[in-house]
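User: I'm curious whether this sequence folds into something compact or stays loose and floppy. Could you predict its structure so I can see for myself?
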Amino acid sequence: MEIPQGGEASDVQLWDPQRSCRRVSRAEALLSRGFLRCRPERWFPGLAGQWTPVMHAFGCEVSVTDIRPSLNLAPVGGHSFLASVAGEPLVITVDPDGADELAGELVPGAESAAAGVVLEYMMRRLFFTLVTSWTGPETVGASFEGAAGSSAPQSSTSVRLGVSVNTTPFTVWFGLGAKMVETLDGLWRRQVQSTAARAATGSVQARIEVAQLGVPPQMLAEYLKVGTVIDLEVRASDTLTVRVAGKAWMPGRMVNVDGFFGCEVAPGAISAPAVPEGTTRLSVELGSVAMEGAQLAEFGQAGAVLLSQTPVSENVSLVINQEVVGKARLCVYEGRFAIEVL
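Assistant: Here's the prediction. I'll summarize afterward.
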């Protein structure tokens, strides 16, 4: 619907993508379909079988409540321990409150020095339990060096392990090195590809769509005329639709990846009604992403980020049958998206 000329058109304001898009680092985008989506517990299936008897010896019940990869800085402090995997440092840290509570459960009434010894023993045992239960593609050398102190390397990539001992929760962080992150990232992506029902062959284009219009063919020239302002009749939000081969594929949310538009795949069903019969579908797009067909399964995971080469701005493309036919500026009109054709 074209916005009437006159006073109402003055209500049209340029959309501000810098304020509207969540910021995502390039590292997060690149790891979003592998490491950040992975489930580490799948590669350590024997962990519970080896760890439970140890805890029973202390008269404790233990359960894992949460395992989550993270790009947050792994904390390093008085309850950190240094190990190595394949020659790369690995820092294991127990949160201070959790460390005290764990020591209290294992050795009630023990002095701090004794509690520290028990904590180090438990982290050493946990580390080697993980090493022996690893079912990854190759066996790697590993060693546990002991308390890390203030000299432990900082790690911005970690796996957070939530544990409950006799209903008392505590958290252990594993600060990972670049090689381990690369290994877990590749393992998960290959696993996702291998379990896909059927992978497309060759390269494909995933198009990032803000909205669509059903335009009568005889009115296309009018809609594409420079200066035309059109109400897209969709709420101004970060909601997107990802299209592959012209078909709606996944829902998404627009993000700002170091100054370029990206689309974070969202959970839930796709909402992209067909345009009225007899009209031409005019798509308003932020950009497109080229990928191999085998990668569709990776990018189809909720949380995966498709990164375009389109700089973040109010400019959008007008597309018919996957061909760019015009440019426009994305605007906001009465809480809805609108475009001004350029």
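Summary: Residues 78 and 149 are 6 Å apart (CA to CA). Residues 7-30+201-341 form one domain.
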